[in-house]
Amino acid sequence: MKAAVHEAPDAYAKASPLSRVSAAAPPFFVIHGDLDSLVPVEEARHFCAALRGATRQAVVYAEIPGAQHAFELFPSLRTTFVIHGVERFLASVYSGYLTAEESRNDRRPAPAPAVEAVASSEACLDTPPKEGGYSARTGNTPARITQPVPSE
User: Fold this and answer.
1) What would the pLDDT profile of 111-143 be if each residue is shown by its tens digit?
2) How many CA atoms, within 13 angstroms, populate the side-chain half-sphere of residue 31?
3) What pLDDT sits at residue 128?
4) ∠ CA 79-117-106 to the nearest 5 degrees?
5) Would you state the torsion angle of the CA atoms of residues 51, 57, 62, 63, taken in this order, to the nearest 10 degrees?
């Protein structure tokens, strides 16, 4: 933006993802590098917390160790793991949608979407399922992806 926050607070509010948080928010998979120098990692964490407080949809957060803003510009092992994680997230969301559609057609209650059906309180990505979720590795450092399981 070409103005400071105090000079154009309405413009900043309109540009902020936080202004879009609502109960009607779709499922989200937020991926953020912990060394991002353009957008502080705390902002991504705050955004996810706000989403989780507002919607019943899946909100998954991946904080990638050692990653900078736009870390995926150049292909790497880290990018490959993130792509696989995004594919799994989208497949899970779509599977939940298809199950809900089938249930509506059959007039029976739909089971919870797969993203919410993780065995523990967090889901991670890219190794076989185990207690505690999944784990992705970028080099020697695990990337943690958290998804609280909603309590009903």
Assistant:
1) 655 553 333 334 444 444 344 443 443 343 444
2) 21
3) 40
4) 115
5) 10
Strands (DSSP E) along the chain, which ranges? Answer: 28-33, 59-64, 136-138, 141-146
d(CA 89, CA 140): 23
Integer angstrom CA distances of residue 69 from 1, 13, 38, 138: 18, 22, 6, 16
Six-digit token pair at 148?
């609280």
Q: Look at the pTM and tell me if it is higher than 0.70.
A: no
Backbone angles phi and psi of 138, in degrees to 5 = -120, 100
For 88-105, what is the mean pLDDT? 92
Assess contact for 104 and 98: CB atoms under 8 A: no
- Beta bridge partners of residue 144, listed in sequence order: 63
Question: What pLDDT, in 10s, does the model give residues 39-79?
Answer: 999 999 999 999 999 999 999 999 999 999 998 888 889 89
For residue 19, give the DSSP letter: G
Phi and psi at residue 72, in whole multiples of 5°? -85, 5
Query: Is the separation of the CB atoms in 115 and 60 below 8 Å?
Result: yes
Between CA 31 and CA 104 the distance in angstroms is: 32
